[in-house]
Amino acid sequence: MKYIAAVAGVALLSACSPQQDTHTETAVDARISYPMTVRGNVTDEYFGNVVADPYRWLEDDRSEETEAWVKAQNEVTFEYLEQIPYRDQIKDRLAQLWNYEKVGAPFKEGDYTYFYKNDGLQNQYVVYRTDADGNTEVFLDPNTFSEDGTTSLATLSFSKDGSLAAYAISEGGSDWRKIIVIDVETKEQLEPTLVDVKFSGISWYGNEGFYYSSYDKPEGSELSAKTDQHKLYYHKLGTTQAEDTVVFGGTDAEKHRYVGGQVTEDDRYLVITAAVSTSGNKLFIKDLSQADSELVTVLDHTDSDTYVLDNVDSKLYLVTDLDAPNKRVVTVDAKNPTAENWQDFIAETEHVLSPSTGAGYIFAEYMVDAIAKVEQYNYEGERVRNIELPGVGSVGGFSAKREADVVYYTFTNYNTPGTIYAFEPDAGESSVYAESKAEFDSSAYESKQVFYTSKDGTEVPMIITYKKGTELDGSNPTILYGYGGFNVSLTPSFSVTNAMWLELGGVYAVANLRGGGEYGKDWHIAGTKMQKQNVFDDFIAAAEYLVGEGYTSNDKLALRGGSNGGLLVGAVMTQRPDLMQVALPAVGVLDMLRYHTFTAGAGWAYDYGTAEDSEEMFEYLKGYSPVHNVKQGTHYPATMITTGDHDDRVVPAHSFKFAAELQAKDAGANPQLIRIETNAGHGAGTPVSKTIEQYADIYGFTLWNMGIKELK
Q1: Which of 230, 351, 524, 682 is catalytic?
Q2: Is residue 562 part of a domain?
């Protein structure tokens, strides 16, 4: 264990390794008196089946009753957490671990080179810039956007020549954004702020204006009301937002839940994607070099995920999983871009492809059992080389402008802090650009990839990380993390919070469940709709493997996941409450009968289906929906649900209802708590201070409920 200072090391040496001690009754162990949650008499009918929804009133995030309930729940939760004797020790040590300079890869815009940096414990990263003479200054400091650090920088985009910039801010973690346009030299705001922008990039056309996306502001609560018609706008500088032109999405024929617009690097084409769900999109292009050019259809269906990677004049390079579940790159002329004219450029392989471009090359990243491999191609389709990576893990980056001389990438894994490398594509050589300054001794830990067998015989990979020399005697506190949905791949990466758990002597395991994208579209589909139970079975089998192999035991095991992973934890803990000692569902999708009625939730139907699709789908969803499967008289694991009161992606009502059900029906002595972060959303942009406090609470709660009474 490497400490920042010798004195701190002596003081904390006895506070960083959990040890079970003789159990002594404390106030923490007493049965909790939960706030009273009124049960209403609301019911819904699905195909003749009446379903009670007694806590429907908690969906009203603007009511005084809900506000009072949130306050009362937090009072109970924090009273419990404050009595855990080593909670502050964990918080202090986590702050120490976090307190190191973090620097992002540089990128050039106009006359300046920009980079992101955090001095250590700053709530938000600061954007710096360096001029041609090497003078460096602060360009944007999001820490000044609000006093408590809860307003974050969400997007930063520069005009073609780099003289103008537009950036989006998020307030209180909300997905609703504001866009501010500034002069790069003076940093002065040039025009009134654009408001009510959601799920949007900022893509400039020259220096004239930019494209962005949003919904009409909904009636009722902007945090929970349904939004389902996304529109692409063009904002011309010097005009008001009310004058912005709707480019796509304004008619019933163009109605889609997610619409995006991106201008190609050469300003030649506007590329528009349109989707009704989180998987599958239509694709259109518009030639911006010709006045009043028509919108040209590339794909008129949503049977694939297809996007434009790049173009050279009228030659388009597309990435698609159409007829290629693991993805391929194809080329086509923009004049006749439909699928029958596509030509393979990088053919599909047995491994999932994620390509990027920079410095006049294409970089083909492949996932091989969730581990990165990268190959370099030229624009004629010739393979230049296999890029030698620093080790076994994940890479990010390999993206730059076409005229760049150097491409940057980050390498990391679960026990290796991220290091930035500069790659010279002509020579094929990598060099360290910025080594991590994290005070973490990687050599003291190891990561091991294993394959275990799920219920139906499917082999599933899992990476397990722990201190070297850990005895597999079943006594190790273990967190099993999973997601299993939306084609999301969990690849190895370092985080300070995970490092804290490892330093505490914990085992950290990540399972690559079906529903994710680790093995392509087929792996994703195998965890969707009527096959969603496969995801839960994979997670259960992962837990059983960890117990069976002696990494941990049921009473030393915690399950954790967020968003769709929160659903995963909620479903597994209601199906197998005996499997774990601690359950940690975060910002979870927990009411599967009504998720599609909130914000953009209907877009998740590709993965879940909805209760309105058919009676069969309704019965299937009701069969695993966590809110509907809490059973009276059952002993549930110690549970701490976490959510944010400004979460407008997975609305907090999911978590509120689940907490109410657990508190009303649990028959055991384990705590059933909900920790509601105020002025916070789904997670992005959360201030460092709040993140440290939250993880100190999570780890303290977890260890305490595993019977660990002091840290040594």
Answers
A1: 682
A2: yes
Q: How far apart are CA 590 and CA 536, in angstroms?
A: 14
pLDDT per residue over 525-567, tens digit each?
999 999 999 999 999 999 999 999 999 999 999 999 999 999 9
Residue 501: both structure tokens together: 């758990």
Best CA proximity match to 594, nearest among 569, 611, 571: 611
pLDDT of residue 199: 86
Structure tokens, 584:
């940690």
Residues 6+ apart with CB under 8 A from 147: none
682 an active-site residue?
A: yes
What's the total number of domains in the chain? 1
628 labelled catalytic: no
User: How much is the CA Rg of the chain, to the nearest whole Å?
Assistant: 26
Question: For residue 128, is it within any domain?
Answer: no
Cα dihedral sign, 183-193-206-360: positive
Query: What is the model's pTM?
Result: 0.88
CA distance 200 to 104: 23
Collapse the DSSP code of 238 into the 3-class scheme (helix H, G, I; strand E, B; otherwise coil) and give the result. Answer: coil
Beta bridge partners of 676: 643
Q: How many residues does the chain have?
A: 712
Q: List the catalytic residue out of 563, 625, 628, 655.
A: 563
Query: In this structure, which amino acid lies at residue 597?
Result: T
412-471 per-position pLDDT tens digit: 999 899 999 999 999 999 999 999 999 999 999 999 999 999 999 999 999 999 999 999
Q: Tell whether 577 is covered by a domain.
A: yes
CA distance 479 to 382: 44
